[in-house]
Amino acid sequence: MSKLQTLWTLGMMALALSAWAQDSSTPPSTGDAPQSAPQQPVPAYGQDNASAPLSENPPLSGLDMPSLEPHAAPLSYVQLGATFSESAESNASGVPGGSGVTSVTRGLGSVILKRLWSNFDLALDYIGGAGYYNLPGQGFESLQQLDFDQKISWKRGQLSLRDSFSYLPEGNFGGSYGSLGSQGVASLGNTALGGFWGGSSLGNLGLAPRVMNVSLVDISENLSPKSALTVAGGYAFMHFYGTDVTGTSFIGSSQTSAQLGYNRSLTAHTQLALVYGYQGFDFSVLGTAFHSHIIQGLYGHRISGRMDLLLGVGPQLTFIDTQSAVCSESIVAPYYCQVFGGTLIPTTIKNTKLGVAAQGRLRYKFPKVSVDLEFQRFETSGSGVFAGAQSNIVSLSALRQLSRTVGGFVDVGYSTNSRVQPLSEQQLIDCGNPQIAQAACPANNATSYNYAFVGGGLQRAFGREFHAYVSYQFNELAFDSSFCGTVACNRISNRSVATFGLDWTPRPIRID
């Protein structure tokens, strides 16, 4: 009798465990949604306290964001594509006070490689081609971008190596004109490594070829089911070739960054984080380097596949060592020192600024609409216009599927940029000397500038491989009144762009 009782008990336990396992692998019924899903592997920390994998709900302080796309089976593949577009642009040279309508033709090809192993994920995206600017002295310009992301994962975390390289004839904030398929013009120059890490050029002022590169290494480690640690370091640089059509030179820059974050999960959807960040800036103009320290508290609420909310704020402490000069004749201002027979003596002016750094992001995916709203307040490289700027950046993009074959989009952005360090007396002297102004003068004497763009358009699918698109975008860059000093001049650059184009995106080629 005891053996029968024992067998009956074991049988009932087996049935109960089977039913429990089936329930845990079956999502709730939602309309016509499937009633079953593949069974998930047992989490490393046990079933009761399991946290979401890093790929689905990464730490707030990390560089990865949760995907809002429906979950799909991971695949290794190669995706080819091409984009051709024609634009009619007013003030295509992007200079203050410019006018006239010209055409810009762009032809681009792209390739995307995704390769998955058991513990290694490789993503490699390339898009390149040429644009023809129908402007005197401009002509053909090369357009190149290469993005690399290698992830190495283990039981509790992952290591990522990332790099984003671009060679473009103009800035990349507000340069998207409607292409959706195969990356295309919409993604050229855009990178998720902007803001704090230095991967953005905030403003299209003039046409001057530029190289921009951001290299990052970051580690995410789950310390427990509810806590994680992230460490990241990066190096970014921007180098300009030549000047714009007015002869204005731009300021090259390099940036070293580091970030350390501790994350704590409060619920399955809510996280808190404490982050320390460091930014070190150096410029092609001598005596303009500075560095800053940032501490931020972050709050995040995420619903897998639907919503991603991030809010962060904290103090920002900036140390500036400006190289200047004083006159040997103490009663004479440095600007007039040599006129009165004095000698300029090099000196260092130390300055400390306390400010606020902040960021916010809301991404939401509705059945037919996707919305991405983002705000960032960080110190940036100055986009070649200033030797460092305090930047406030707001962007909004929305996509809506209007029918089975037609979709619409809206793209809006705005940035304010204030000079971090004022021009010294020596720099003012250099700006007034035409023999050395281009090499030593820091681009211009404005104290701030604003840049805004607003655009929208439609895409139309033709079969499985072709998409046509049409769009319009308006850009405006405006310097403050100090840009002109005491004389009258043009300090605002307006630009309108109407574009139509065609994307070709064939089926991905599986390489499993």
Question: How is this structure best summarized?
Answer:
It contains 3 helices and 19 strands.
Give an overview of the whole structure.
The chain has three helices and 19 strands. It is mostly beta strands and 512 residues long. The longest helix is centred in the N-terminal third of the chain and has 23 residues, at 2-24. The radius of gyration is 27 Å and the shape is globular.
- The helix tally amounts to 3
Average predicted local confidence, pLDDT: 79
> Quick one: biggest sheet?
18 strands, antiparallel, barrel
Shape: globular
Identify low-pLDDT runs. Answer: 10-54, 178-183
Number of strands: 19
Q: H/E element string?
A: HEEEEEEEEEEEEEEEHHEEEE
Q: How much strand content do the residues show? A: over 45%
Distance between the termini: 56 Å
State the helicity in percent bands.
Answer: under 10%
Which structural category do the helix and sheet elements fall into? Answer: mainly beta
Radius of gyration: 27 Å
